Amino acid sequence: MYSEVQKWLDAALDQPIPEGTVGFIFNLYEDGDDLWSLELVATSRFDENDPDWGCDELSDLGTREDPLSWVEDAGWEAIQQEAADALSEYLSGGKYADVLKKADGVGVGFVDGELDLLYVKS
């Protein structure tokens, strides 16, 4: 999965990031029939103690119209873990990892579910 995430993120982050971006959240969606989607949202707020910080959206950076989508027969927990692992790898050495790490925090999760924090600025 990492190579698909890498290509998708390289394209999504190759643009100016909205002024006032404080956090990034990767929203996961279950689209039915084992189809999963991932979008990236820049947010105006980050609070590691309030999982609703991801609702303060500044921009979807075009990823709502062009999400990363894939078919996989797995439960949501496995999908979230797989996405978190691939995104963590990107944060460790992806082309635009520094853009994501300029934010106060980066998280991933299903819109109505648990949020995993992948990065918190120290």
Write the layout of secondary structure elements.
Blueprint: H1 2-12, E1 23-32, E2 35-43, E3 57-59, E4 68-71, H2 76-93, H3 97-101, E5 105-110, E6 115-120
Parallel strand pairs: 1-5
Antiparallel strand pairs: 1-2, 2-3, 2-4, 5-6
Radius of gyration: 13 Å
Low-confidence stretches: none
What is the number of domains? 1
Note the gap between the termini: 28 Å
For the biggest sheet, the summary is: 6 strands, mixed
Average pLDDT number: 95
The SS-based structural class is alpha+beta
- What is the beta-strand fraction? 25-35%
| Count of DSSP strands | 6
Task: Count the DSSP helices.
Answer: 3
Shape: globular
Element pattern in H and E? HEEEEHHEE
Which percent bin holds the helix content? 25-40%
Summary of the model, kept short:
With 122 residues, the protein is of the alpha+beta class. Helix content is 28%, strand content 31%.
List keywords for this structure.
six-stranded mixed sheet, alpha+beta, 3 helices
